[in-house]
Design goal:
heterodimer; A: mainly alpha; B: mainly alpha; two-stranded antiparallel ribbon; two-stranded antiparallel sheet; 12 helices; potassium transport (chain B)
Chain lengths: 597, 225
């Protein structure tokens, strides 16, 4: 991006000649550019494949290996080329990055090989273009997860670290039954008792032939009540012991108590204790019987043993809105058809459609194509509407089911992708902040152009805050004071122009680069001002101007420390001479790369 | 009579087509879109020798300029929108569309709505390597929006407003409406010698050549390439 726009800068600067006749104040002098030599071809020999490109292309990104003097280490004198003993296929993409400004990730390449090449050539992966970034991040995540899984598997097979406390061992045994034989035994025993308990609940209600050959049949539970009671007690004791052990072993007890599994455990064993506590009172026995229903929740304890159940539960939870909408539309249809059927059947005698809620049952049974036959319409209108109801029932019920199924996978993946993208965006921004990829020459020229614009219109760029304050204050400062204050405010303004640029388009410009540039040109400006308008500036205001540049420096220092510094450049010769010739060196070599946060 | 019957027939056919489409289940949008003709404009400049003759640039400079240009605009021409976008990048704080439009019209000599490389590089050579007379002519051409040889107060106001728009809102001191008019007044006071309310090219170039500041500032971009 920077490369492409930089090509237009000469046009924009030439067009600035159009401002000259209308300018109210004289223009700042142009920045001195170091005379670069002829733009030559560079030959890059990567393991035998020769690549050639212009020197300027490589120097667009001066903080990578190829763009900086680091490549001199790889210069091969005999063949007069730069030799790299790396993968030529991946190098092609890296070279394309210099040419087009966009880094692409080839899908057929191995992610770790690609990462290594990028690290070697000093390119940060966060600048991969949007077209390939998601793929790159996905592959990277898979790779790290695979590595982590491998490590975990190895770890679990290895000896446990001996300094794990008993509590941690127990928790580990509960969570991964495969770690030790004891854990496995415990796992199977609890599973067995869950099954036994559920079976007992079911068999309890089966009618058994009573011994006395009475006419009334009793259920097995009432016949063998003692046996069932003993079985129940045994199961509940085991469940209680398991729950207490898990509670003790949990690393965070509060989190454990809040988790779904522990709630299921509690609900599974509570009815027994409540039944024990309550006496055989006639009033509460009804409620007690209801509580027995909760014993069926023991079957949910199987979800610890089955990952599939957990996944199902999660997908149901994530598709709750879709299911809710389906229910809502069904309810609408039911109400409509029930009303219609009720009014259609109102006339007929001995009609079962006594009220609209009564017709709900008919509608539901018909729409789901069950058709029990306990309620049938008798009038002709009723039959017509009944047939319409059953036809539309097929549409209303049968259609959304595959839609919901596909919605499951779509929503599941979508939410995962949205989370992924959010995380990727955050890390991408953080990573891009560390990247400094602008040409310093381009920066100085761009700033000179903006400065010319300021001079043409005789207004300066300021920060948004200063703009607000200036709006509120009445500007009754003297001309010299305003000029000197405007001098100090201009660097902030110009820095803000480029920082705001960041927010609009992804055009990263380091802050201090600009500030350093401003410092240089302010010195130039101050000298010119002194030469041309000695009458306007009193001595005190001149001193004030220079004094204000000093706190400027300290302000800049605080600017720099507030942000992230990535690559310090080699120290520069002192810029104290102040002559215009030295300023460009000062500008370009004292650049501490600071992120535009 | 027959036209009415024809119309009825057409509507009937359309109706049956609609029903048929409904039954067969084809979507409306699938077969109604014809293939969009994608017109690509490709334009390439004349040869290098010709351009060397027409401009003051050396061969290497022309090569460098064209390489950068071609990288940005592979089709070989710049249209107004691209121009506006480029200017939006250079002047991010303000609204550069009006100024970019004026500039585009100034560059576009043959008024065909797109800038070719020759037009750009010829103007560039005038601006960077041309004589003062040529530069002033170019500036006059820019200000003269309707290209009638005279700059009126309204044209100047438009131009200056667009330049002030480049700055954006966060400027100090705050931009007042009167400031732009004042600027126009100052300009006309300086340039309009015979006070007839318009500035002609002769008045313009005479005044500019007398003004030291303007002469100096015309030279500052001479080494921009």
């Amino acid at each position: 991006m920077a490369a492409g726009v930089a090509a237009w800068l000469p046009f924009a600067r030439a067009a600035a000649i159009g401002w000259m006749p209308v300018a109210s104040t004289p223009m700042p002098p142009p920045p001195r550019e170091k005379r670069r030599g002829q733009d030559g071809l560079i030959i890059l020999n990567v393991s035998g494949s020769r690549f050639q490109t212009w020197r300027n292309t490589l120097e667009r990104y001066p903080d990578t290996l190829l763009g900086s003097t680091e490549r001199d280490f790889f210069f091969h004198e005999e063949s007069n080329e730069y030799f790299f003993d790396r993968d030529p296929d991946i190098f092609r993409h890296i070279l394309n990055f210099y040419r087009t400004g966009k880094l692409h990730y080839p899908r057929h390449e191995c992610i770790s090989a690609y990462d290594e090449e990028l690290a070697f050539f000093g390119i940060i992966p966060e600048i991969i273009g949007d077209c390939c970034y998601e793929e790159y991040k996905d592959r990277r995540r898979e790779n790290t997860e695979r590595i982590q899984d491998d490590e975990e598997n190895e770890n679990s097979k290895d000896m446990v670290p001996p300094d794990m406390s008993f509590r941690e061992t127990m928790w580990r045994a509960f969570e991964n039954p495969h770690t030790s034989t004891m854990a496995l035994v415990f796992y199977y025993v609890t599973g067995f008792f869950i099954a036994v308990s559920v079976m007992a609940n079911v068999v309890e209600t089966v009618p058994c032939r009573s011994e006395q050959n009475r006419a009334k049949e009793v259920s097995c539970g009432e016949r063998y009540s003692v046996a069932f009671f003993c079985l129940d007690t045994a199961c509940v004791m085991i469940f209680t012991v398991e729950y207490l052990l898990r509670l003790i072993a949990a690393p965070s007890r509060y989190k454990f108590v809040k988790s779904v599994m522990s709630i299921i455990d509690v609900v599974a064993i509570m009815p027994y204790y409540i039944g024990l506590v309550m006496s055989d009172n006639e009033d509460v026995s009804g409620a007690f019987v209801t509580l027995r229903v909760f014993r069926v929740f023991r079957i949910f304890k199987f979800s610890r043993h089955s990952a599939g159940l957990r996944i199902l539960g999660y997908t149901l939870k994530s598709c709750a809105s879709e299911l809710g909408f389906l229910l809502f539309s069904l309810t609408m249809a039911i109400i409509i058809f029930a009303t219609v059927m009720f009014y259609a059947e109102k006339g007929s005698t001995s009609s079962k459609f006594t009220s609209i809620p009564a017709a709900f049952w008919y509608t539901i049974v018909t729409m789901t194509t069950l058709g029990y036959g306990d309620m049938v319409p008798k009038t002709i209108m009723g039959k017509i509407f009944g047939s319409i109801c059953s036809l539309s029932g097929v549409l209303v019920i049968a259609l959304p089911v595959p839609v919901i199924v596909s919605n499951f996978s779509r929503i599941y993946h979508q939410s995962q992708r949205a989370e992924k993208r959010r995380a990727q965006k955050a890390s991408k921004q953080a990573g891009q902040a560390l990247v400094c990829k602008t040409n310093p020459t381009f920066e100085t020229q761009h700033h000179h152009l903006l400065h010319c614009l300021e001079k043409t219109t005789n207004h300066e760029f300021v920060d948004e805050q200063t703009y607000e304050t200036s709006c509120m204050e009445v500007s009754l400062a003297k001309a010299s004071m305003s000029r000197s204050s405007s001098m100090s405010s201009s660097p902030h303004g110009l820095s803000s122009c480029c920082t705001r640029r960041n927010k609009r388009k992804s055009f990263n410009v380091p802050n201090s680069n600009m500030v350093a540039g401003r410092r240089g040109s302010i010195q130039e400006l101050s000298t010119i001002q002194i030469r041309e308008r000695p009458v306007n500036n009193s001595r005190s205001s001149l001193n004030a101007k220079f004094e204000e540049t000093v706190p400027l420096n300290s302000e800049e220092q605080s600017y720099i420390t507030a942000a992230v510094i990535s690559m310090p450049t080699p120290p520069v010769t002192t810029p104290e001479s102040g002559a215009l010739g030295n300023c460009p060196d000062f500008l370009q070599s004292n650049i501490v790369r600071v992120s535009a946060l | 009579m027959s036209s009415r019957r024809r119309r009825c027939k057409r509507q009937l056919i359309k109706f049956t087509q609609h029903i048929a489409r409904l039954i067969t289940g084809t979507l409306n949008s699938d077969n109604e879109d014809e293939e969009q003709e994608s017109t690509t404009v490709r334009c390439h400049p004349e040869n290098l020798e010709q351009l060397q003759l027409q401009t003051h640039f050396s061969r290497q400079e022309l090569q460098l300029l064209y390489r950068g240009f071609k990288n940005e605009c592979p089709s070989g021409v710049v249209n107004e929108d691209t121009f506006k976008n480029i200017y939006a990048v250079f002047f991010p704080l303000g609204d550069s569309s009006k100024y970019a439009q004026f500039l585009f019209n100034a560059f576009d000599k043959d008024k065909n709505g797109s800038l070719s490389f020759e037009e750009l590089v010829c103007d560039l050579s005038v601006l960077l390597r041309g004589t003062t007379e040529e530069k002033l002519n170019w500036a006059f051409n820019l200000y003269d929006i309707n290209k009638d040889g005279k700059i009126t107060k309204e044209e100047m106001l438009d131009i200056l407003k667009s330049i002030y728009d480049l700055m954006g809102k966060s400027i100090h001191p705050r931009l007042k409406e009167e400031a732009v008019r004042q600027h126009v007044r100052i300009f006309f006071q300086k340039m309009d010698i015979n006070q007839d309310g318009v500035v002609t090219i002769d008045e313009f170039s005479d005044c500019c050549q007398k003004d030291e500041n303007i002469m100096l500032s015309l030279k500052i971009f001479d080494n921009a390439v």
